[in-house]
Design a protein that fits this description.
The chain is 26% helix and 25% strand. The protein has 7 helices and 14 strands. Bound molecules: 2-oxoglutaric acid (AKG). The site of 2-oxoglutaric acid has 10 residues, from loops.
Length: 264
């Protein structure tokens, strides 16, 4: 299976419209790849909080339309990263969209763990409540977004739902880059799964982005890693490695369930 992670540069000197057109063209260029992955909030920038409200889109807004079309023109599965979504009830969500090669919406995921503590996403957006997996022809994808990477129980939930490959769009800041790579590898090793983690490049709202998108195999080995700038990171991997690893080293079978809750 071939995946291409589009590590998009999100800078303020480019308008959202022009970035959307540029990214659609980049997706179209990936014809022949099985799965294309975009980062978190690449239209506005994950730290450009003031844009969340102004650029928020209805469930089938302009980014949805452009990405559905780009997926079908390229004939690829497209994890289109996330967009600020405005629910009909007015609540904003950080919502990831996954399209099939015919441009149908295959899944959407509202980020569960909102980042920012007492500001930004944590106060401006609602929290998702549902774990989401998507069945591709060769693997079952579990979806998570950026800060979710710090919460291993979410990934265990995705494994229980059948996930073999995690796709994690992000807008991870440069100042915590070491955590990004470490956590991507940890989630891969502990769940014996592939991790495809796609971040942004550039600087928005004064926050330099880490770049360094990374693909990790179920043994925790880094198969490919991007540099700091805009880049297309293409990698070939064999999803059957997941079953092989889980078979040969069956640590997941030794789980003791319920330890994430106090026992009485
Ligand atoms: O957890 C982190 O260090 C970064 C998280 C983040 O930037 C986000 O979720 O948007």
């Amino acid at each position: 299976m071939r995946a291409s992670l589009l590590q998009v540069a999100v800078n303020e000197d480019e308008s959202v419209d022009s970035r959307r057109r540029r990214v659609a063209a980049l997706v179209r260029d990936q014809a022949g790849t099985d799965l294309v992955v975009l980062p978190e909030l690449w239209t506005t920038g994950a730290f450009a909080y003031e844009g969340f409200g102004t650029e928020a889109e209805p469930p089938e807004g302009p980014t949805y339309e452009a990405m559905a079309k780009a997926a079908s023109e390229a004939g690829v599965w497209l994890h289109a990263g996330s967009v600020p979504e405005r629910d009909p009830d007015g609540t904003l969500y950080n919502t990831s969209l996954v399209f099939s090669p015919s441009g149908e919406l295959a899944a959407s995921y509202r980020k569960i763990h909102r980042f920012g503590f007492d500001k930004g996403e944590a106060v401006l957006m609602g929290a998702g409540e549902e774990l989401v997996t998507v069945r591709l022809p060769d693997t079952v994808v579990g979806v998570a977004t950026c800060y979710d990477l710090r919460f291993p129980e979410l990934f265990r939930g995705l494994v229980d739902a059948g996930a073999e490959t995690f796709v994690v769009p992000a807008g991870w800041p440069e100042r915590r880059r070491a955590h990004w790579t470490l956590l991507a590898r940890a989630r891969a090793v502990e769940n014996q799964a592939f991790v495809l983690a796609c971040g942004t490049a550039g600087t928005h709202a004064g926050v330099p982005q880490a770049g360094h998108s990374v693909v990790v195999d179920p043994w925790g080995e880094v198969l490919a890693e991007a540099g700091p700038g805009e880049e297309v990171l293409t990698v070939d991997f064999d999803p059957a490695t997941v079953a092989g690893t889980r078979d040969r080293f069956p640590a997941l079978k030794d789980r003791v369930l319920g330890l994430d809750r106090p026992r009485r």
